[in-house]
Design a protein that fits this description.
Length: about 230
Amino acid sequence: MSKRRAIILLAGMGSRLARPHPKSLTPLGNGETILSRQLRILRQFDFSVCGVVGFKKDLIMEAAPEILFAYNTNYDTTNTSKSLLCGLRHAVDEDVMWLNGDVVFEPEVIEAMLSASSSAVAVNNARVADEEIKYTLNSDGYINAISKKVQNALGEALGINLIKAEHLVAFKEKLDTVADQDYFERAMELLIDERKNVFKPIDVSRYGCVEVDFAEDLERAKTMVQPTSVP
């Protein structure tokens, strides 16, 4: 049985957090960085991981030499849609989980996503902040809009997503089609426009899951993680 495939988007400059290193290498105060915690949890579920790098790529590659990497050469002029496309280049006829490189989460979040019967988006229905990616549903319970501009949103998307093999080819086509500065959510919306019932929301609000954009997010993530011994 082949390993599951996961892609971590690590190419961004993370300017909002204002750290001298890539955001994924930010220490969590428990002996782990955001990235090392992500990798530790993904290993528990037998994932083969590809990290898409760009900004200060050597630092990230040196921090995680055990995984494969894809390089977004245009990381400074493109957004997450093109980084994700770089990571998906060699994915064929398989389910793929992808996640932003700044998400701190508990293992139960990944377990919940893997139990999804369709392509899926991890969401938190307990809060809806203006600056976050938000979503609404159609009458069948599938996501019909997902972006920062969504009105009357039901919750926030958390930056952990799953594309099923049946949708993979079409999704890659949409990622190729969208503008360089589009987030990957734009490609998701185009796929939804074409196929309607694609992504189900998976509410993981009962578990710890924080996307670290600002200093207050980092403090929230630090209070969430438990002290651990890192080999």
